[in-house]
Amino acid sequence: MIDIHCHILPGLDDGPETLEESLALCRAAAADGIRTIVATPHYKPGAYEWSGPEVLKTLSLLNTAVAAEGLDLQILPGAEVAVFPELPSVLEAGGPLMLNQGIYFLVEFRPHAIPANSEAFLASFLDSGLIPVIAHPERNAWFANHPEVLFPLVRRGVLLQITAASLTGGLGPQARDFSGYLLRHNLAHVIASDGHNLDDRPVALSKAVALAADLVGEERAVTMVTTVPEAILAGRRRMVIQPLEHALPEEVRPPSLFQRFVRGIFR
User: Fold this and answer.
1) Sequence-distant (≥ 6) Cβ neighbours of residue 216 within 8 angstroms
2) What is the pTM of this model?
């Protein structure tokens, strides 16, 4: 399996602080069947800033330590990039903020809102040849209350990455339910760990893939941690599965806790 969103490099963000802590995450990932991890430290001016050479040096140290332990695991470069006004000026194909220094980039919105004109903002990257992958939209309250905005984005070619712990319920019932909504409507393309530590933010995918298989079938669930992330890392442009429109008006947004109680559909 391939994990394209993981905070596994030591000392760069809110992930592990030491190389040994990073190695512990690598051991857990390898035990879960993950064979490739994209290291995606936060990049957010004013909070987390680092240089390309700094990331590559840290990456090399970790890969050397992984090899010394005999783990069947490769760590590749990347970033989780926050949305900020100057973002277009710092992104370039092959640059340090891209996934595997390619043409895809992992973009993070604030958890409770998205900027005005975000559709046009993301479309501008597509027009320039760069492809956004929205990180964990299922954990964004604005997307959860306005899921209809995701349909045109996906049609344009934007990809969506959901977090494994959201599917397993580790990040709460709202993230779990909205993850299911995204999967059922063909709005989710990749499952990733967004791992930070061994406790509440683990580096694991297998349980989430099994749960996704219950919703969309095993074949499609497996592609979300194999062939789709592989295409992203190789810089291949791929046809996105067209999203399924909601059949009924009330499906425009996921059902609330009270609605699920009334309908008797607790899982």
Assistant:
1) 183, 184
2) 0.90
